[in-house]
Recover the amino acids of this structure.
């Protein structure tokens, strides 16, 4: 029998796996649309998508820190774990 912590870890792992596959599909669709309409060359489309995906990853941690300051007050949590958890919650929303 798994503990509650074990279930939480499994749920977070499944959510991250789903988010990875969903995000990969979204990126491919957006790049294909830009290339098919000839709005950008394939190289420029890939570069732009990569840059915006990286920017989005940094924005997610900023949102998690904002949520941490304003909505959640768990003093006993490790700060880094807390920010990571809130990032996952925001991604899965």
């Amino acid at each position: 029998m798994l503990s509650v912590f074990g279930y939480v870890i499994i749920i977070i792992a499944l959510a991250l796996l789903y988010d990875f596959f969903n995000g990969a599909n979204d990126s491919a669709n957006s790049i294909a649309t830009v290339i098919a309409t000839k709005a950008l060359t394939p190289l420029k489309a890939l570069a732009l998508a990569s840059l915006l995906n990286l920017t989005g990853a940094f924005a997610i941690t900023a949102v998690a820190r904002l949520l941490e300051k304003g909505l959640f007050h768990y003093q006993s949590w490790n700060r880094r774990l807390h920010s990571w958890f809130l990032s996952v919650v925001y991604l899965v929303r």
Observations:
- DSSP finds three helices and no strands in the chain.
- The radius of gyration is 17 Å.
- The helical segments are 4-36, 42-70, 79-92.
- The chain has a mean pLDDT of 77.
